[in-house]
Structures are given as structure tokens and as C-alpha cells.
Design goal:
Number of strands: 0
Structural class: mainly alpha
Helix content: over 70%
Mean pLDDT: 93
Distance between the termini: 27 Å
Largest sheet: none
Number of helices: 51
Shape: globular
Low-confidence stretches: 958-966
Length: 966
């Protein structure tokens, strides 16, 4: 059998690497992947690795296979197989001591994984590190392989590819910490071998986080530290030396490393050597990757020692100056490394927690002012440096979409740094620095020989990025900036930024003195933007929205001009290049202005704004049902979405309610003729939802007809949007006694038809939107009208339905179901929920054992681990509501899990978590503790399959407890 499998593996590898037919190569790859999960893979991979005739392709595949088997499938082996596996891997490590390197690395990872799985005593006294020490001394000819294993051991503690229990992983970390001195001694002993220098540095970097027992003063004089720091000036070993130095920096500030004073001997020597690299940052002959490595070191130093730097000593300022040197580099990948430092420094300088040790408020304020005075010039320099990094390149028009995306990313990153600077400097001072840039750029823009718009655009981009931080009382710079905008050339990218700048300062424009007459010329610029290109139109329409929101009262006397702009944009004629999506900004702009009008004027204005939206819909309806059914959805939704914006933003409930009543026949025609069309129904339901949200109970004259429409159409077409529209209706009208009859009918009809659709997990998976909106609606019913919902048969059926769908993989649908269940369990303990306790108890007690089994299955693998908190909360709610009963249900379910998955101690721990949840543990605590049990049950695919086969979350008729697997 083994010989046959070995031959097949060889054939598959030959086909994978050498067959000319793609389909055969694909089939071979699929077979090899499946083979790696079999029991035979252990023996075949081991045998081929020992076979002298195996070629490189076979060796690489088999070493990867053996490594992955040890990592994830170690539990497949009999209990006594450890020793023979250890011996075989040891022989292989020596065999591949001199290569191939890829194979040797996989063998080392396999040995490290084996060490994670088994207790320390299985390796002899002192564990694997002592074993390795003995072997290195006894067989120095195999030093290369042994040293690589020494490097890999600490790296593998954080590898979750290894299917080890959490406590075993913690124990392994503890074992390595106890052996750190031995490892460091081995590395020190290898220092004298030149060809091993890079490996020694790499090993020291790996082991540093386990060196808790070595003091900072010892490290400061340690030969390995000296070798690493001296290697910072070596091109050959720079990267490895940087890695060690970076780890040393982190070690001085890591949790449990002691006080700053205790770490100071090491900190001082690290800072001294790093500062000695400053000239290399500016060395044009230096390789870019080496410059990146040095820049990373400066960034690490700055971020780690920011609390010390923020004290403002002379040495601190030298470090800040060096970081400014890094920030001045032209490459984004290099200068952006410092951005997190500037953010942390800003936060340290402005937050009160940094100064609590100074005692009194007077002392705190004095110290804060002293530090800010020291660092403000540095942040001014920072602003000046980064503001030039956002200029459009001359060849921007040739950029690919990916390059343009990268350029936008640079701008967003620079914007964040500018905002950090404004927190230290204040918006007005930052504006002053940037205005100097703008003035210089404006001169360049008017240069007759070589006019350049890019510097002006860059300065304006930075100015608009800090707009929210600039005081609305600012009267020196912004009037000059605003008067400059109409004078700038209408280059597309520049005009786009000018429009964005206008929008960004809308609040300042509203507060500006009337005598400045700022607004009219700015509106002219926005008009120009809307007619230049789609990009400028997008920026202009967004700016127009902001201007109307913040300067709405200034527009109330000039509605005719606004309506003219609006009608041109909406009609699509007149030269504007506003897309239908961007036109929504203009709809919103007019809507917020209408909100400022008195009711009578608002009625007239609302009619005017609605006409260009309603008229095209009515024209389509008048062409007959057949035409209305055949037009593309886009022809309807473009108008309905505008109606949504109007209903959402005109805050005159009575006026909007009248408009909804007036336009209801139009909306009803679309409902009736397009109910099959998901896109149109989603759009029109969204419009109705905003109408309900804005109008509230003033919409009573239309709500009955709307609910009747929803009920009828849902029965025929099962569109999920009818459910989410109903959720909004329930929220507004749920507690209104006059609507009880309507809502009772709505709830009964919608839910009765939904549960017919969702009978099995396959049904849920096929209709996740229905499931999501159904259970959002059910939760709304519990919160807003439990009296109409909870005492009904439909409530009980929805709980049964939820049990079938708990393990749906669709994230939002799953969260809605879990939220509904926790709402059910929490209801009896709510302020008004006592009336429902007996009813809920009756339902849950009948289903508790099955429900608990499904929830435990969800926790242990039926749902992704990302859903852990939501699952934990349901179990927490269930435990609090049903105490001892829940504990019994959980015990039954946990006992189904096979003993090879959970030990007796782990079962007891699992039950204790549930018991503690019932007695008041917090959600955070319960989630963390459940997380460990969840990891145990998911540690590899075999284990996860065993758990799910035992719990069978989709088998709702399962009642008999099977015997545990042996």
C-alpha cells in the first residue's frame, strides 16, 4: 500500500511540474493537496525524504507535507510515535544540514512544532533547547542546521498553524523563557564563526523577547549586543543588525521590563548608536533598502521612546531633528515611517494623562505650555515638509489606476499628519504656515515662462484638509484665500480642489462678515466646476451641499437661483456634467434650505423640488403598465433615490406627509407593476422608509395604504426590502394603539410567509437577505410592540425558525438571528418584560436542550471564530435567564463531544464558564474564556469535524445522546 502511494506521489509531482497539459497539472495539484490530509502522508513523506534518489521537487513537497502533518495532525499518531518521529526528523536535519535550504527550513519548523506539542520532559532534562545545546556541542559539523532550528524555535510559539491547546502553547513559551540563557550562550559561542554571523544576529533577534531574566545593564555590555550595534555600519549585515536593534528597543519598553531608570543603560547605548547613522540617511550612494532599514530604526526609536522625547530635553530635540530628516526624504515608503511617531508625540503633548505626575492644575498647565513651546517649531517644520509631498506629478495623466490609487493614499496619509500638527499648533497657526506655501505657489502659478498649477493645488489641498481645525473667527488668512480662488486657472485637478476647499470652509463662509461678499463668487466657481468634468462636478456638487447646509439662511432669499442650478443638474441639459449619484448632493442641498423656510413657503418649495423627480415617473406610468414593466430599473431608481433624499432631508414632517399622500398613487403604481424587480423595490422601500422616519405619526393618512401594499406584495414576491420597511414602521408606530390592528395583521402575514421560506439551513443560505431583515423586524417587534408579537403563535414559530438558521455563514443574517435570540432571553428581565416571562419560559424550556446544543456547536466550529462575541452573548443571556436548566442542557451537549477533543478538565472548565455566566460574569470575560475552549475545538480540521459530527447543529430532531467515541 505504501509503495503504491509513494509511486503515485512521484507520478503526481512529475505531472505537476512537467506535464504540458494545464488540466492534468491542476488535477495533480488537487490530488497532492488531498493526499497531504491522509494518514499515508506521514510514512510516504518520511520515506521519500530519507530516499537518496528523491529529486529536489520531491524533497520540497515531502518536507512541506511532513511539516504540515506535525503542525496540524500530530494527534493522528499513536501515543508512542513521538520518539520515532523525533529520531527521524533529527536524522533528516543532519542529512540536509548543507541544503537544500528550503528543505532544511521545513524540517526545522517540523521539529519546532513537535516541541510545541509535547511536554518538556519528552526531550530530556531541560527540554528541546538543552537537547539542542548537547547536540551542537557533540556534533559541531551540523552547526548550520542546529543554528537554524535555534532561530526558528521562538518564532514558532506564535504560529497558530500548530494545532496545540492554548495551555500547552503557554507552557511552551514558559519553557523557552526558562531556556533563554542557554540559547543566548549558544549564540554567543557561534559569534566567532564569520560565515554564521548573519544567522547569529537573526537568532538573537528571535530570542530577545524571551530574555526576561537578563537585565538592561547586562544587555548593554553583552557581546551579542555589541556585535549587533557595530554591524549597523556594515552593508552586509545591516538588515539583521537593524532587526536586533529594533527588538532591543522594544525590549526596553515591553510590559514587565521594569522602570525607565532601570532600562536607561541600554536605552542610552541604543540611542547613541542609532543617532550615529544619521549621515547614512542622506548618503546618495546608499542602497534604498538600507535607507529604509535605517529609517525604520529611527521610527521604532521615536515611537518607543516618545514619552521620554516628549519631556523636551536637548537630547530629545536631537532625536526629533533626526526624525525630521527621515520625514524630509523624497520616498513615501521612507518618510511615512515617521507618521506614527508624530501622531504619538502629538497625543502625548496634548493629553492630560501625560502630566498627572506634576500634581496641581497650575503645574500641569505650566508644564504643558513649556513642552508645546518647545515642540511647536518642530511641528511647523513638519507641516512645511509634508505639504510639498502632495503635489500632482507632471506625468499624472499617464498614471495607471493603481498608481492613481497610490497617489490618493499618499494624500490621505499626509492629511492625517496635518491634522496631528493642528492639534499641537492650532488650526490658525497651521493655516499660517500653509498660507506661506500658497503665496509662494501663486507666484509660481503666474510665472509667464513656466506657469505651474501643481504647487497651488497642493497648498489648497493641505488647507482644506485642516479646515475643521481653523477657527470660524479667523479673519487674516482665509479672506485672502477666498479672494484668491476666483483668480486661479480652471485646470481640472486644481478646480476640483478649489471646489473641495469651498465646501470644507462652509461653516467659516457662513460666519464671515456680510461686507466681505464672499458667497456669490464662490457659487460661480461651483457652477464652473459642475460644467467642467465629472470629477470637478462631483467635488462641486458635494461642496454645494455643504454650503447649503451651513449657509442655508443666506440662501433663503435667493431660491430662484438655487432652483435654476438644481433644475439644470437634474434635467441633464445645460452643460452640467453632474452624474446621477452626485446629483443627490444637490437634491440634499435644496432640501436642507427648504427646511429653513416657514411651512407655507416650504410647501411651495417642496413642490418645485419634487416636480423634476415625480414628473418623469408619472410620464412612464401614463405610457401604460407594459412600458412601466419593461423599462430598465435605472430609469426609475434614479428618480426614486432623489425622492428618498428629499423625504430624508426636508425636516417639515407635516409638509412631507402631505407630499407623500399626494404622490402615493404614483408610488403605488410602481409598487404594483414592479414588485418583481428587486432593485426598484429596494429603492422605493428606502424612499418610504425615509418618509416614515421624517414624518413619524403625521404620516397616518398614508400608512394604512402603505402597510396594505406591503402585505399584499410580500405574499406574492417575497422581497426582503418589504421587511426592512416594515421595521421602520414598527419603530415609529409600534406603540400607537390606533395602529394595533394594522400592525398585528402586518406581523402575522409577513412572518407567516417568511417561516415558510426558511425551514432548513439551506433555505437560510439561499435567502440571507430575507433572514437578515426578518430577524431585524422580529427584534424591532420585541422592543416596540411586544404585546402584539410575543403572545402569538408566530413568535414561537420564529424561535423554531431561528434555531434552524443560527449557523448561517452570512455575517449580517447570522448577527440578526443571534441578536433576536438574545432579545428574547433578555426580555423578561427588562423594565416592561415581566408580563412575558411565563410565556417565554414555556417556549424555551421545551427547546432549551436543542438550542443549547446548536449554540455550543456554533461556538466550537459551526460558525467562524469572528462571530465569537455574538455567540457568547446569546449563551450569556440564556445562562442568566435559565440558570440551572441551562447548566444541565450545556452538560448534556458538552458530554457529546468526544474525549479525544476535550479532556475532563476542559469539560469542567467549559461548564464553569457557563455557570459563571449565570451568576454575573461580564461579556468580555465570558468571551475570552469561551475563546480558549473554541480554539481547543477548532485546533485542526479533524477535531473540528469530530465536534460538529457529535453536536450535529443542523439536526433539529436529534434527541438521543449517542455513546462517546473512544
Amino acid at each position: 500500500m505504501e509503495a503504491q502511494a509513494t509511486a503515485t506521489v512521484k507520478e503526481a509531482l512529475a505531472a505537476l511540474y512537467h506535464h504540458p497539459d494545464d488540466s492534468i497539472r491542476t488535477a495533480a495539484d488537487r490530488w497532492l493537496q488531498e493526499f497531504q490530509h491522509t494518514l499515508d502522508a506521514w510514512q510516504v513523506a518520511d520515506s521519500l525524504l530519507h530516499d537518496e534518489s528523491s529529486n529536489l521537487e520531491t524533497l520540497i513537497f515531502c518536507s512541506q507535507t511532513l511539516r504540515s502533518k506535525v503542525q496540524r495532525d500530530f494527534e493522528e499518531l499513536p501515543s508512542g510515535a513521538f520518539r520515532s518521529l523525533q529520531d527521524s526528523l533529527y536524522v533528516l536535519l543532519k542529512k540536509f544540514n548543507k541544503g537544500p535550504p528550503k528543505v532544511r527550513t521545513q524540517i526545522c519548523i517540523a521539529i519546532a512544532a513537535l516541541a510545541v506539542h509535547v511536554p518538556v520532559e519528552d526531550w530530556g532534562a531541560g527540554g528541546i533547547v538543552n537537547w539542542l545545546s548537547d547536540e551542537m556541542k557533540a556534533h559541531p559539523e551540523f552547526i548550520t542546521g542546529f543554528l537554524e532550528l535555534l532561530i526558528i524555535l521562538p518564532q514558532e510559539t506564535s504560529s497558530y498553524k500548530i494545532a496545540a491547546r492554548p495551555e500547552r502553547r503557554r507552557q511552551f513559551e514558559s519553557d523557552l523563557s526558562a531556556s533563554a540563557n542557554v540559547a543566548i550562550s549558544l549564540l554567543t559561542a557561534c559569534m566567532g564563526i564569520d560565515q554564521l554571523k548573519e544567522q547569529v544576529l537573526e537568532g538573537f533577534s528571535s530570542w530577545l523577547r524571551f530574555c526576561h531574566g537578563i537585565s538592561a545593564s547586562e544587555l548593554a555590555s553583552h557581546p551579542l549586543v555589541h556585535m549587533a550595534l557595530s554591524s549597523l555600519n556594515s552593508d552586509q549585515f545591516l538588515e539583521a543588525a537593524v532587526n536586533v536593534t529594533s527588538e532591543l528597543i522594544h525590549a526596553t519598553v515591553s510590559h514587565g521590563s521594569g522602570t525607565t531608570a532601570e532600562q536607561m543603560p541600554l536605552i542610552q547605548i541604543l540611542v547613541h548608536h542609532i543617532m550615529g547613522l544619521k549621515e547614512q540617511l542622506k548618503d546618495p550612494s546608499k542602497d534604498e533598502e538600507d535607507v529604509k532599514a535605517i529609517a525604520r530604526l529611527y521610527a521604532d526609536m521615536g515611537e518607543s521612546y516618545v514619552d521620554l522625547i516628549a519631556e523636551g530635553s536637548d537630547d530629545s530635540i536631537q532625536i526629533v531633528n533626526a526624525l525630521l530628516e527621515v520625514t524630509s526624504h523624497l520616498e513615501f515608503d521612507i518618510y511615512s515611517m515617521t507618521f506614527n511617531f508624530w501622531h504619538r508625540l502629538k497625543r502625548n503633548l496634548i493629553r492630560r494623562e501625560s502630566y498627572v505626575s506634576f500634581g496641581s492644575e497650575v503645574a500641569i498647565e505650566a508644564e504643558r505650555n513649556r513642552r508645546l513651546q518647545i515642540f511647536r517649531p518642530k511641528f511647523e517644520t513638519l507641516v512645511s515638509l509634508v505639504s510639498s509631498r502632495v503635489e500632482y506629478p507632471e506625468d499624472y495623466h499617464t498614471f495607471s489606476e493603481e498608481d492613481r490609487r497610490d497617489f490618493r493614499h499618499v494624500r490621505y496619509a499626509v492629511s492625517d499628519v496635518l491634522l496631528d500638527a493642528t492639534d499641537v499648533l492650532g488650526g490658525d497657526l497651521t493655516l499660517t504656515v500653509l498660507s506661506t506655501k500658497l503665496a509662494q505657489a501663486y507666484v509660481s502659478c503666474n510665472n509667464e515662462q513656466n506657469p505651474k498649477w501643481q504647487p497651488v493645488e497642493a497648498a489648497l489641498f493641505c488647507i482644506q484638509a485642516i479646515a475643521k481645525s481653523v477657527s470660524i473667527e479667523e479673519r487674516e488668512i482665509l479672506p485672502q484665500v477666498m479672494s484668491l480662488l476666483p483668480c486661479l486657472p480652471h485646470h481640472e485637478q486644481l478646480l476640483q480642489t478649489v471646489c473641495s476647499t469651498i465646501g470644507s470652509f462652509s461653516k467659516w463662509i457662513d460666519a464671515a462678515p456680510a461686507e466681505l461678499s464672499i458667497l456669490p463668487p464662490l457659487v460661480d466657481i461651483l457652477n464652473k466646476g459642475m460644467s467642467t468634468s465629472e470629477d470637478t462636478a462631483a467635488a462641486a456638487s458635494m461642496a454645494f451641499k455643504y454650503i447649503c447646509e451651513d449657509c442655508r439662511r443666506k440662501f433663503s432669499g435667493s431660491l430662484d437661483g438655487l432652483f435654476q442650478i438644481y433644475h439644470i443638474a437634474i434635467s441633464g441639459v445645460g452643460g452640467y456634467k453632474v452624474s446621477s449619484e452626485d446629483s443627490l448632493h444637490l437634491v440634499e442641498a435644496l432640501s436642507v434650505v427648504i427646511t429653513t423656510l416657514p411651512p407655507e413657503s416650504a410647501r411651495t418649495a417642496l413642490e418645485l423640488i419634487c416636480q423634476p423627480v415625480i414628473n418623469p415617473l408619472q410620464e412612464l406610468i401614463q405610457q401604460g403598465d407594459q412600458i412601466l414593466q419593461q423599462v430598465p430599473a435605472r430609469q426609475l431608481t434614479v428618480h426614486i433615490d432623489r425622492l428618498s433624499s428629499i423625504f430624508s432631508n426636508v425636516k417639515h414632517p407635516e409638509v412631507v406627509a402631505e407630499a407623500v399622500y399626494r404622490y402615493w398613487p404614483t408610488l403605488k403604481s410602481i409598487f404594483d407593476q414592479r414588485a418583481w424587480d428587486t432593485r426598484t423595490m429596494e429603492s422605493i422601500c428606502r424612499s418610504c422608509k425615509f418618509a416614515v422616519r421624517t414624518c413619524g405619526r403625521t404620516m397616518a393618512m398614508t400608512i394604512g395604504a402603505m402597510l396594505e401594499e406591503i402585505q399584499t406584495l410580500y405574499q406574492q414576491h417575497k422581497q426582503s426590502c418589504f421587511l426592512y420597511l416594515s421595521s421602520e414602521v414598527i419603530k415609529i408606530f409600534g406603540s400607537d394603539p390606533s395602529c394595533a390592528e394594522y400592525l398585528t395583521s402586518l406581523i402575522q402575514i409577513l412572518f407567516s410567509h417568511t417561516v415558510q421560506l426558511l425551514r432548513t439551513i439551506q433555505d437560510f443560505t439561499a435567502r440571507p437577505d430575507i433572514a437578515d431583515d426578518c430577524y431585524l423586524l422580529a427584534s424591532r417587534c420585541i422592543r416596540y410592540c411586544p404585546n402584539l408579537f410575543v403572545p402569538t403563535e408566530m413568535f414561537q414559530r420564529l424561535i423554531d425558525c431561528a434555531m434552524a438558521g443560527i449557523t448561517i455563514q452570512h455575517r449580517e443574517a447570522c448577527k440578526s438571528i443571534l441578536s433576536f435570540l438574545s432579545d428574547v432571553f433578555d426580555l423578561p428581565n427588562s423594565s416592561d418584560g415581566g408580563n412575558y416571562r411565563e410565556f417565554i419560559n414555556t417556549i424555551v424550556l421545551q427547546r432549551g436542550a436543542t438550542l443549547t446544543r446548536i449554540m455550543i456547536a456554533a461556538l466550537t466550529g459551526a460558525l467562524p471564530s469572528g462571530r465569537l462575541e455574538e455567540v457568547s452573548y446569546v449563551l450569556l443571556s440564556l445562562s442568566r435567564a435559565f440558570g440551572e436548566n441551562m447548566l444541565n442542557w450545556a452538560r448534556e451537549s458538552i458530554n457529546l463531544i468526544p474525549p479525544q477533543v476535550l479532556t475532563d478538565a476542559e469539560r469542567l472548565r467549559f461548564l464553569n464558564i457557563i455557570s459563571d455566566a449565570a451568576s454575573g460574569s461580564s461579556l468580555h470575560t465570558v468571551t475570552d474564556r469561551f475563546g480558549e475552549i473554541s480554539d481547543v475545538c477548532r485546533r485542526n480540521k479533524t477535531v473540528q469535524d469530530l465536534v460538529q459530527s457529535a453536536l450535529r447543529p443542523h439536526d433539529l430532531t436529534f434527541t438521543v445522546v449517542p455513546q462517546q467515541l473512544s
